[in-house]
Amino acid sequence: MAVTDVPTQRDASTDELTKRLAELESRVAELEEARPEDRVSLVIFSGDLDRVLAGFVLATGAAAVGQQVSMFFTFWGLNVLKKSTRLEGKSFFEKMMAIMSPGGSEDLPVSKMNYFGVGAKMLRKMMKDKNVSSLEEMMDLARELEVKMVACEMSRDVMGIGIDELVDGLESGGVASFMADALDSRASLFI
Amino acid sequence: MAVTDVPTQRDASTDELTKRLAELESRVAELEEARPEDRVSLVIFSGDLDRVLAGFVLATGAAAVGQQVSMFFTFWGLNVLKKSTRLEGKSFFEKMMAIMSPGGSEDLPVSKMNYFGVGAKMLRKMMKDKNVSSLEEMMDLARELEVKMVACEMSRDVMGIGIDELVDGLESGGVASFMADALDSRASLFI
Amino acid sequence: MAVTDVPTQRDASTDELTKRLAELESRVAELEEARPEDRVSLVIFSGDLDRVLAGFVLATGAAAVGQQVSMFFTFWGLNVLKKSTRLEGKSFFEKMMAIMSPGGSEDLPVSKMNYFGVGAKMLRKMMKDKNVSSLEEMMDLARELEVKMVACEMSRDVMGIGIDELVDGLESGGVASFMADALDSRASLFI
Description:
3 copies of one chain form a homotrimer. Chain A is α/β, with parallel strands linked by helices and 191 residues long. Chain A has 2 domains: 1-35; 37-190, DsrEFH-like (Hypothetical Protein Ychn, Chain: A, 3-Layer(aba) Sandwich), CATH 3.40.1260.10. In chain A, 50% of the residues lie in helices and 13% in strands. Chain A has helices spanning 2-34, 49-64, 92-100, 118-129, 135-144, 153-159, 175-183; strands at 39-44, 68-73, 148-152, 171-173, 187-190. In chain A, strands 4-3-2-1-5 form a 5-stranded parallel beta sheet, sandwiched between helices. In chain A, helix 2 packs parallel to helix 5. Chain A starts with a helix and ends with a strand. Chains in contact: A-B, A-C, B-C. At the A-B interface, helix 1, helix 3, helix 6, helix 7 and strand 5 of A face helix 1, helix 2, helix 4 and strand 5 of B.
């Protein structure tokens, strides 16, 4: 009797433990599922040299410490990615926008004290004097570090900027693509 | 002897397992408690049409993928929410601020190339040409998607903006209310 | 036989439970390790009074609800921290930058409607009328609440700003130092 009792008691207790453990395992799996990736997401909204530089310093800095980095270029930020300006096939407003916007990273103004480009030249000169990488070098570095660069589809569409006017190696995506990365990121910044 | 030994040994071992399991359950409960909600929080500091549009694209995009969204309108961002401008009962500075500020979402300038409102009109026209929702349509959509919109109390107080001058359906709150949402969010952005 | 069988069966089952428990303990430890701290990280990129004020309202608000707060001052944001302007020992561009930049928190312009400083004076007057703390009082409060303030090394270097030109009690650090805090934060904002 005693001997047959024992397994019964043992089963009751290990059964209960097994059940609690299984429940806990599924709760831990859910937490692991929700855990952010080692990822940083940046919206580059601004097309000002100073802000864009800050964006690339943050992007390459995050990649250097092992984070996956997504940069989502939208609105004025698209100017950073331009390699050429095409006018044919554009509406009147799109042409105006194209003419008045910087034609690429080398044309970006600074947000303060620009004085028709003097401020941007001055900032670039000061960076060079201190051996700080230029924006173009930082963009190359970002590519080497496999930073994902996404050109916002809606902004391209509104401003009439063709993908052929932008530098190579970009992904194209909308707000849903940014949001998917941002929700899985340890930090997201709007620049 | 052997028979009575068995339960003792078993108890020792299941007791220890039970204890470790209980401890682990409380650690998992703490992790679940600290886990961010499916939430995105935005500070709308800017009152520029282009930045505010980006804010609403992000807000409605986040809501569309099932996130709870909080938008905290502060400083120039309050201009987005104005439905009318009242001058009586305001101090000299409050009147000046009221007269010089946009009277609502339809008056917002753009941050670049505004040229006394031409830039804003041009951006709105370009969006319409591409069948992109206007700011006002996005604000309606945000409301439908139950995006929480909070008007910053301190900014209202400093600028002398009465709650009667703002659109309906807003909550009123301070930095503590924003911070509570942001700390529980998967992504927070300052726009 | 039956008696010796029992421990064997029990061992098999508790052994398996022990193994699963140990595995789960290590997964929970990993989740705890990855869990963000009660921390908020801010990049203060802007040197505009209105944006900087928003930054300090958020920083002190976060500290008031028990968060550790890091503020990383970079680019124009360094102007907030200036206590004096030194010209000797600077290059031509560094001198120009020093002369054209605000000489400290009391000189900051506003981002809109500045009109050669009138806007900043007006904002300060309106805040005083409503008994809202001034920027300088908020900076003192931030210090009392042990908000960590870091002056960006690279920006200091590029702009030629010596640590002797900045207020006391700052840390000096680069993007890696910001990133380390941001990755462990519950919210990060770029201001």
